[in-house]
Write a structure and sequence with these properties.
The structure holds 2 protein chains of 2 kinds. Helix content of chain A is 32%, strand content 7%. In chain A, the strands form 2 sheets. In chain A, strands 1-2 form a two-stranded antiparallel ribbon. Chain A has a two-stranded antiparallel ribbon with strand order 3-4. Chain A is mostly helical. Chain A starts with a helix and ends in an 11-residue tail after the last helix. Chain A has a domain of 33 residues. Helix content of chain B is 37%, strand content 1%. Chain B has 2 domains: 146 residues, Cytochrome c-like domain (Cytochrome Bc1 Complex, Chain D, domain 2), CATH 1.10.760; 175 residues, Orthogonal Bundle (Cytochrome Bc1 Complex, Chain D, domain 2). In chain B, strands 1-2 form a two-stranded antiparallel ribbon. Classes of the chains: A mainly alpha, B mainly alpha. At the A-B interface, α3, α4 and α6 of A face α1, α2 and β1 of B.
């Protein structure tokens, strides 16, 4: 998110506060956007902040600016989470899934259409087949037409005659988008992070992301946030990357992945 | 002619019960070749190649021989490749095709490239599969002119090399189904998806120049091309495989009268009769209606793939538009009004510069294998840019007629929406530059 976009979001928030006062806030200064300022280490060690905006951890022996390996990053994120859970014993935080987390997807540049790395989201039976009745479909030739003569079926070709082929293409396209999100979610480098921390370290298999609860007031941000705002907050700390634009394909793919992981959960905006 | 509703409903339910659930997707999909190019989707491959139709090397080689053999026609003058010539991207480069005795048909030859992925074959979808399709031109009096399948089989059987090869490949005597299966197998090797566009969408931002990238944005935005020419990582054909009336033949037909007359002539769903009506009579212009007899299909033709579109002109079902500039002019004015015009047809308000950009983008869909053809055709089309019979700027810009308002469009100099994963999942495409052209 560029500074300009942040200002726009800020102005939008101000407008909604003003409650209809016509464009009053347009020219005035945007409210300050909260930042998580992590303390600096005496020894110049790397300090990684957690997304609660308070907790942070000094990594002994690693200087600021140095890179972490995935193993080190896993230890750091684990220690941060432990600290946070100690501070917030009553937090509504689901324990990590009992099953071992799937290995992160490969990140060879030749494979941008990521192979499935985690078990694909179980599909409800409703997601295929039910729309297709009998009748003439786009792929029907003369023979099928002959078969259906006399049956007064609706046959609008533009939107009416979707077939199993169409549905298979839709399902596969959606799944490809979700898998791309899966890949980004597991890849600190793609996220633009500098310390090897990726989303899956605190949110294995997208657990505890609660996409269904947005929009909601996020104390760390000091404003009402959408899921993408929270993703960006985590990208700043602890991932240590630059926030993504709202329409960045990586952001869109991650949203797709996180929502896909919560299929069947009722929407409950504003939930704490 | 219509059944009373009381009969129709139970019939519909019965048909639904019989067809709706009795057609599970093929159980064992044929595995796609390992070396598919980036613009060919393995998922679509599996959907498009049914069990038992795998292109085995033996079938392909027999099919290729048949495809190029003029002896399949009645007077040894015409082969499949006469109208589907590799030199013209597997079309013939003519407005409408010519068969035996230099007879003209009424339709433009569509490319075989990626035809294997079509949901149905022919401009009106009158054949459901490649195999069904392959049988018809051989028997059409104006194409290859054979009187009936038996005559074709007899003629092929009399050629010793074929007799031996059919026995080797299919383990039985020459017959019409096997002949079509062999040709179908050859056509299943003619996939194409190695275009400059594919390099772009896989993350090489420099594969397209500024004009082409603007064209891609217009394609997905102001031009609204993607509504029907839908391109997607799973179905990268740039076609929805549906049928739309875009008003190509409307200025020379009274569609209403013609549809009424056609109903008297057309028997029920006989592919051979439709084939002859489609290629020899004025009823050709009724398009999908000849197949379905549904009023909303009058004048509707299948959305063709845009892959290799630069080298497969002239355009439209009747080859009436010579260049892609003509095609853009047609769409820019919202097509030609007629009672069955697709609701999506509205003026686009594209400027000359924007039309140039979209055409530039369309030429990036040419497979690298045909790159030199692409360059040649682009030069030819550009040379005709002054002749624009379809152009109606007043209508396109909303100064004449009443074809609706346009939505505001993003400023491409600020941001090119084509850079943000419209095509599907690609996260790696970055805008190469944002500087003004």
């Amino acid at each position: 998110m560029t500074i300009r976009m942040k200002l726009l979001v800020g102005a939008g928030a101000l407008l909604s506060f003003a409650g209809g006062v016509a464009l009053a806030g347009e020219d005035s200064a945007a409210p300050e956007v909260k930042k998580h300022a992590v303390p600096t280490s005496k020894d110049g060690d790397l300090v990684v902040g957690l997304c609660d905006g308070v907790t942070s951890l000094e990594v002994d022996g690693v200087k600021e600016g140095q890179k972490l390996t995935r193993e080190q990053a896993l230890r750091v994120s684990g220690a941060l989470m432990e600290q946070w859970l100690k501070k917030n014993p009553d937090a509504n935080w689901d324990p990590a899934p009992a099953v071992a987390q799937a290995p992160p997807p490969t990140k060879t540049p030749e494979a941008p259409r990521s192979p499935p790395a985690v078990p694909s989201t179980p599909q409800k039976p409703s997601s295929g087949g039910t729309m297709v009745g009998g009748g003439v479909k786009p792929e029907s030739g003369g023979k099928d037409v002959k078969k259906q003569q006399g049956a007064n079926l609706q046959d609008g070709h533009t939107y009416g005659a979707f077939s199993q082929r169409d549905e298979a293409i839709w399902a596969a396209s959606t799944q490809a988008f979700v898998e791309e999100g899966n890949r980004v979610f597991h890849d600190a480098e793609l996220l633009g992070g500098t310390v090897a921390v990726s989303c899956d370290m605190c949110h294995p298999d997208a657990s505890n992301t609660h996409p269904e609860t947005y929009p909601k007031y996020q104390v760390q941000l000091g404003r009402v946030a959408l899921l993408r705002d929270m993703i960006n907050w985590c990208i700043e700390n602890p991932v240590r990357g630059k926030p993504l634009a709202d329409d960045d394909p990586k952001m869109r793919a991650m949203e797709a992945y996180i929502y896909a992981k919560r299929k069947g959960t009722p929407l409950e905006y504003g939930k704490k | 002619m219509r059944t009373p509703p009381g009969v129709a409903l139970p019939l519909a339910v019965l048909l639904y019960a019989l067809t709706g659930h009795a057609q599970p997707p093929p159980k064992q999909a044929v595995p796609p070749p390992a070396d598919l190019p980036p613009g060919v989707s393995p998922v679509l491959w599996k959907l498009a190649v049914p069990e038992g139709a795998a292109p085995t090397p033996e079938r392909v080689s027999l099919g290729q021989k048949l495809f190029n053999d003029k002896r399949l026609s009645v007077d040894d003058s015409t082969s499949c490749s006469t109208c589907h010539d590799e030199k013209f991207g597997f079309t013939d480069g003519k407005p409408v095709s010519e068969g035996v005795k230099a007879q003209k048909v009424t339709r433009n030859s569509p490319t075989i490239l990626n035809a294997m992925f079509n949901a149905s074959q022919f401009w009106d979808g009158r054949a459901a599969t490649l195999e069904d399709q392959a049988k018809l031109p051989i028997l059409n009096p104006r194409e290859m002119g054979q009187p009936n399948p038996e005559a074709v089989v007899a003629k092929v059987k009399a050629i010793p090399e074929y007799q031996a090869e059919f026995r080797k490949v299919f383990n039985r005597d020459v017959n019409y189904d096997d002949l079509a299966a062999a040709i179908g197998a050859f056509e299943r090797t003619l996939y194409s998806g190695n275009a400059r566009f594919d390099r772009f969408i896989m993350g090489d931002a420099k594969a397209l120049n500024d004009s082409e990238r603007r064209g891609w944005a217009l394609f997905n935005g102001k031009g609204r091309c993607n509504t029907c020419h839908a391109g997607n990582v799973v179905s990268p054909l740039f076609s929805d495989q549906k049928f739309h009336n875009i008003g190509i033949a409307a200025h020379k037909q009274d569609f209403v009268k013609m549809a009424r007359e056609a109903l008297k002539v057309v028997r029920t769903g006989d592919e051979k009769q439709i084939d002859e009506l489609a290629l020899q009579t004025n009823f050709s212009e009724l398009g999908r209606f000849l197949v379905t007899k549904q009023e909303n299909d009058v004048g509707a033709f299948k959305t063709p793939t845009l892959r290799n579109i630069g080298i497969t002109g002239p355009y439209m079902h009747d080859g009436s538009l010579t260049t892609l500039w003509d095609v853009m002019d047609h769409y820019n004015k919202g097509g030609v009004a007629n009672p069955y015009l697709d609701g999506g047809m509205q003026r686009l308000g594209l400027t000359e510069g924007e039309i140039d950009d979209v055409v530039a983008f369309l030429f990036t869909l040419t497979d690298e294998r045909f790159a030199s053809q692409g360059t040649k055709r682009l030069a030819e089309q550009r040379a005709r840019k002054g002749q624009r019979p379809e152009r109606d700027t007043a209508v396109a810009m909303g100064k004449k007629g009443n074809l609706g308002d346009l939505a505001p469009n993003p400023d491409l100099d600020v941001k090119n929406p084509a850079a943000i994963g419209v095509y599907g999942t690609e996260a790696s495409v970055k805008p190469a530059s944002t500087k003004k052209p």
